[in-house]
Each structure stands twice: as C-alpha cells, then as structure tokens.
Design goal:
The structure is a homodimer. Chain A is of the alpha/beta class. Helices cover 36% and strands 24% of the residues of chain A. In chain A, helix 5 links the parallel strand 5 and strand 6 (128-129).
C-alpha cells in the first residue's frame, strides 16, 4: 500500500470537527476507496480547551496555523478557519510554499485571492481544492471542472446561500417580517459573524465567482459581480409575489455574453412551481448549462457539519488517489481577464415603491416608465398609510439598462419617497 | 505539453458521432483543460458508407472493433457499440489486454461482465470509466465514486430510463393507453432494438446494479435485483394514482440492509408534488444518500447525443488529466459478494385486480388480505364490464413479504381473473 496521506487541519469549528469525525469513523472505508491510510497528524484552532465532541488527543496541537501548515508531517493543509485574509490566507500561502496541497472551504479567501493562490499552487506543483466552499455537500465544483470538461459552459445559475433561502422561505411560511426572521436566524446560529456576508449576497457572490472562473476559463472576478442582498425584501413583496405565482429567491447567474462574463447575484422572482421556486430552507440548487449536456441540476444541503465535511473529504480522497487538477480547472496562467458584462436580455420586472400621496404622483411614475420604454403589465396601489401610497408595478419584458435608467429617473422625482425595490422576474 | 491522448472509437451511432463532434469542435477547450491534445486516430462501425454528419476522413477506419482496440496508436478505447456481449465485449477485453483504458456507455456489458472486466483492467494497470452508461449527462458515477468517497452510502434511488418515463408521462398527459404510447415511442426511435430492455426495466436495472456496486463496495449483481417493468401499467392505474395525488414512475432503489444489499427496479406510486413525481419525459433523476452528506439530488437528460457524449468526454478528460480510479471505485478484488436482500420496510401498496362478477368475490379478497395482515385503507369497485369487476385497493403500510404472500394466495382463488397489479407507494 502507498504511504499514508497526512492531514493538518486548521480550524475546528463545526466543519473541522465533522472532518475529524469522518476520518476517525470511516478509516477502513477511506482506505478501501483510496488505497491509502488517511491520517490526521496535527490540528490547530483558536481555543485548545473547547470540547468539540471529537477526540483530538492523538494529534499534535499547533496554536499557529502557519506553523501547522509548514509541518513536515503534513501532506495536505486543510483550511477550515474562514476569513478572506488574515490567518487563513497566511497559512494557505505558507502551506503552498512548503509544497503542500490545500483543501479549503473558504470561498471568501478564494474569491479575493484565488488567482494569486492558484498561481502559487502551480509554482509549487500543488493544487487547491475547494468543493466545500461552494454549495456545501453538492459536488458542483467537481461536476463543472471534471464531468463537464467536454462542454462549452453557457450558464451557471443557482441558489447558494442557505441562510438567505431560510429567511425568505420562513418569511413566507410564517408570514413574518424580515427583521423578525433575521433575529430568528441569528438566534439559531445561521448567520455569519458579519451577517451582511449572508443577507447582503456577498457569501453567495463569492461562490458564484468561483464557479464562473471554472465555467468560463476566466480569472475569478468577484469585483466584477453585480450584487444585491435581500435586506430590502419585505413580507409584502413576498406576499405580492406569491399572489402572482412567484417566490423570491436570491439567485446567482453567471453567463458568457458577447461582451464578457456577466455575473449577478440578486433577489429575483421565480415561478413558485419551478425547481428553484420550490427550494426550502437551507437547501441549495445549482443549474449548469453546457452546449453538449444541455442542463443538469444539482440539489442538496448547502451547509452543515456532515455535508460540508463530506465535500472536504471528497477533495481529500481525490488527492489521496493522486488526482491533482489545476485550482480553477486549467493552469492559472491561462485564465483569461474577462471584462464584466451586463446581459441585455430583457425580462419583466417587479417594482415596489412608495409614493407621496398627492395628486398626479402615479401619473408621473407612469410617464417616467414610458419615457424609458418600460411598458406596464399591471399596476396596483394598495392599502395605504397616511401620506404614503405603496404601489406595485409589474412591467413587460424590459432591458436591464432601460430599467436602471428609469429607476435613476424615478429617484430624482419628488413623488417617490424611497429608492424603489426592483426585482427581475426570471423564468428559470 | 504532454503527448496527445489518442482515442479509438468503436460505434458511430448517435453518441459516437456526438463524441467525434465534441473532439472536433472543442479541440482548444479540451487542450486548455487537460493540458493535452485529444485526438481521434481511428474509428469503427458496421457501415462505413453511412453519413453520420461528421467528417471522419482524417481517421483510420477499421471494420473490426477488436482490431481497432489493439491498435498501437490508440490510448483509450471508446466503446459505444452496445450489447452485453459480442463485439463490444470482445473488443473491450482486447483493449484491456493490449493495455488501453476503456471508456464506455455500455451498461448491459458492465452489469453482466463488470467484475471480470474490472479485474482484467486492474491486471493490465488500466481502468474502465462508464459515466455515460448511467443516466446520460448526469455525473452520477463521478459523484458517487469521488465526491462522496467520505460517506458510507445508505441509499441510491432514481428514475434512470427516459423511455419508460416518457411513456408514463405521455400516457397521463395525453390520456392514451400503454399500447398507443408504446407505438409512438417506437416511431420516435426512443426504444432499444429489443424494447423489453426499456419497458421491462432491464436497462434501468443495469444502471442501478452499477451504482449499487460503487455505493456499497460490492460486486455488480444484476441477477440479484428484483425487476418489474411497466408493461402492465394501464391508463386506469395512472388516472387512479393521479386522483390520489400520485404519479407512477419506474423507480430504482438500492440500499444496504442488515442482510445484504437490496436492489429493486419497479414501477411505484410517488407523490405527484415530489421532485421525482414531477419528472417529465426523458429526464432522469438520481438521489444519493450518505451518512455525512445527507441527501443530494442530481437531475438531467438521461439520454441523447449531446448529454451522453458529454459524459463520455468527461471520462476522456479525466484520463487525459491522469485520473485513473478503479472501475467500481475500489480494487475489483476487494469488492464484496453481497447476498441479495429484501427490505422489510413496510409501505402502502396500490392493488388493482379484476374480479369475477359473482357474489362474495370482494369479500373473499378482503378476507385473504386480512389473513396476511394487510389492512385496507380504501377499496373501490368501479365502472365494470359484463362479468368482470375491476377493483382498486390501497392498503395501509404492509411488509413486502406479507404483500407477496397475499398476492400468491389471491392468484389461487377462482375470483381473481388475472394476476393483480401491485405497486408500492413510496414517500420519496
């Protein structure tokens, strides 16, 4: 049998403890499948004394993840600390420089530093695998990088933040306002330390940027992504959408356009009966379209100890089996710079705005929309409070640029009291 | 750059022509992703003169696939002829003996000869990859073998024959009887040369046997599978199921039980609103459950030129990248013999039978069911023809063995005019 494969694990939170659990529980299974013993030699975390529900006594302890990353008895540095820079980045760089492969669940770090890290990995003859960074237990990185390698990928799309999906589905099912459900999610421990990473769409955006890089052979370009969060979605929006047969989802779309790669992460209305519309709670779904495969849809748990540890171990087993693919599927030096592009593809839009309750307000809005070639499919003014009139408008299919121009024009009037909520209606 | 990877393709039907098309169309993409030129050196098919819509003039032609399989200028033998033995098997053996890797879409051959072929591959230091053999473009073999390698797999389940699913969904949507839709499917070219492979559940059974082997580390055991086809499903069954909120699907289930591996492929009633219940036409869906990942669901086109060629090329790219995993995920010699097992898990059953229209017939049926501890949830005798009374019964949850015993007892009576149709109701 080949030599044991030795893991050094930095970060012993939920996922780290899950990885330790699998290595301990499934030692025989892992050896049968990979032909090697998979051994943990050393671990690192902030607090040595914390009970994590797994026995760590057989492993060396390092207070400093950078020291762990460089240990001679580590073949794979398993980075489960998180954070887009700081210790995670330092230790990952150290591991690569010391000739270790890296397995990580850290989408933030890769979205921001993936290109430089991929180059460093290649210089060292190593790779970085990150299945666990995107959509938890769903094998989307592998599907895109390996299974679909014979395809020109045309579009990647999906719901990739379980917390947002939990909040949106819970608002609908319980009829609760955003703030209440946000507080619930916080109490349940569903939110990142900085919750804007979740509800601001940033975490999901990190994931989409990584998938886009693999799909289109481009450098990860998180800064080129258009991102909107779910913070401004009200229970009214959810109810109005439901009345029309839609549900609101934080939907990511990355696609090749004539001008470059379009990447957007934004709440959209999707048909309630569609697979994406039916996604509940923390479940994630990724849709991949390629010229040969047509469309495949992958669904599963987007987070959680078991599913995320499963993804980490899939990467570890690949490396144990000698599979070492370039980080983003092709050599980092061959990844293209792709200008951020914007789809011109028209779609209907849902608009909600609050108008000053004075004569001619609605007419003014309708005029501005018309001036920007936005034609109105339905418009409704509903149960309004004193001096404020909430208005709901659904447009016919309109170009995104036309919509943006109209929104800017609306904001300059004296009749629209706050920036309108504008949600694209996607026929997914 | 590494040496070119040279393919010899035997079988130039829909899928073979699709593979040629991808290699020609995406030469640059394939090289960017694998670091190698992927070249076709030689091809083989029954009829050299047929126009397949692709230019084959640059490739050597072999009339005999065995000769092609042994050519010095072939690194990978791509077997797309089909058939569980004959030329496909002969050529695959020849390729392995000559030290070639094999990529195949041939589930029948692997379900019957997979163990021997996997052993032959290992003896030669080669492998057989077969993503295209199961569920067309859906990367289920890779997900199970690689992505979920850290899991003890508990269950694999799915709809894996697009033709059966087409027939069942078309019967429902058009309100047509089985024979009419079967004739339609035949006219559309959806059926295998021997249509019982499709409608008898055999083709789907082949696929399930391969997945079960990977999932449970057992030798492929097609003979140990319980298989029922869809031939006896009537439009009445479909309509009655729909009335109760169900749809009928040819569902495969493989799971580890205390006594061994249970494998069954049979038409079942599933909730119409479930993801499997909503599958339309030729779409396939595979559900994989593991102790860490919980559940992932993969959906996509189960057949067709592009999707199947995509799967073939995924395997080719893996080999080009140096990925060479044992055929069924672990060395063939370590695969266990597993006795076929039968789940004791109770489920409700749908029963349709035709009774002789004479006094006491229904009472006799009810008595027999009661004697076998099958309790009746609902029973309905409907619009009956002269001398024959169709009866529909839905039982409460019952053990499969109890149901079988009751069915045997019913058949020995003089009141049940034909073997009852009995369909398990699965809460998928």
């Amino acid at each position: 049998m080949a030599d044991p494969l030795r893991l050094g694990i930095a970060g012993l939170g939920t996922v780290g403890a899950g990885v330790v659990g699998i290595v301990q529980r499934h030692a025989d299974l892992l050896t049968a499948r990979t032909g090697r013993t998979i051994a943990i030699t050393s671990v690192s975390a902030r607090d040595r004394s914390k009970d994590r529900g797994v026995d760590l006594s057989a492993y060396a302890w390092e207070d400093d993840p950078v020291t762990l990353a460089k240990r001679d008895d580590v073949d794979i540095f398993v980075e489960l600390m998180g954070g887009d820079s700081g210790p995670a980045l330092d230790a990952t760089k150290a591991a690569l420089a010391a000739g270790k492969d890296v397995v990580t669940a850290n989408k933030a770090m890769l979205a921001h530093h993936g290109q430089a890290l991929a180059e460093a990995a290649e210089a060292a003859g190593r790779t970085i695998r990150f299945e666990a960074a995107v959509a938890g237990g769903i094998p989307v990185v592998k599907a895109l990088t390996e299974s679909l390698a014979g395809n020109k990928i045309t579009r990647v799309m999906g719901v990739m933040n379980g917390t947002c999906n939990y909040i949106l589905t819970r608002m609908e099912s319980a009829g609760l306002p955003y703030d209440d459900v946000f507080a619930e999610a916080d109490a349940l421990g569903f939110l990142e330390a900085d919750p804007t990473l979740d509800v601001g769409g940033i975490d999901a955006g990190h994931k989409l940027a990584l998938l886009a890089s693999i799909a289109f052979g481009t450098k990860p370009d998180f800064d080129g992504m258009r991102i909107e969060g779910i913070e401004r979605i009200s229970i009214d929006d959810i109810n109005r959408a439901a009345d029309m047969g839609y549900r609101i989802k934080l939907l990511g779309v990355a696609q090749q356009t004539a001008d470059g790669v379009e990447q957007r992460m934004q709440p959209c209305l999707v048909p309630a009966s569609s697979p994406i519309g039916q996604l509940e709670g923390g479940t994630n779904m990724v849709v991949i379209e390629g010229d040969a495969v047509e469309q495949i849809v992958l669904r599963g748990p987007g987070a959680g100890q078991g599913p995320t540890a499963s993804a980490v171990m899939g990467d570890v087993c690949d490396l144990a089996r000698g599979i070492r693919i370039p980080t983003f599927g092709q050599p980092a030096g061959t990844l293209a710079d792709s200008p951020p592009a914007r789809s011109a593809r028209p779609a209907p839009y849902y608009l909600r705005m609050t108008l000053a309750d004075k004569p001619g307000a609605l007419a003014k809005v309708a005029t501005i929309l018309g001036q920007h070639e936005l034609s109105i499919d339905r418009m409704r003014q509903y149960d309004h409070a004193e001096l404020e009139a909430p208005v709901l408008i659904v447009t016919h299919a309109a170009a995104p640029d036309a919509l943006d121009a109209a929104l800017r024009a609306l904001e300059t009037t004296d009749v629209v009291l706050a920036p309108p909520v504008a949600l694209r209606i996607e026929a997914v």
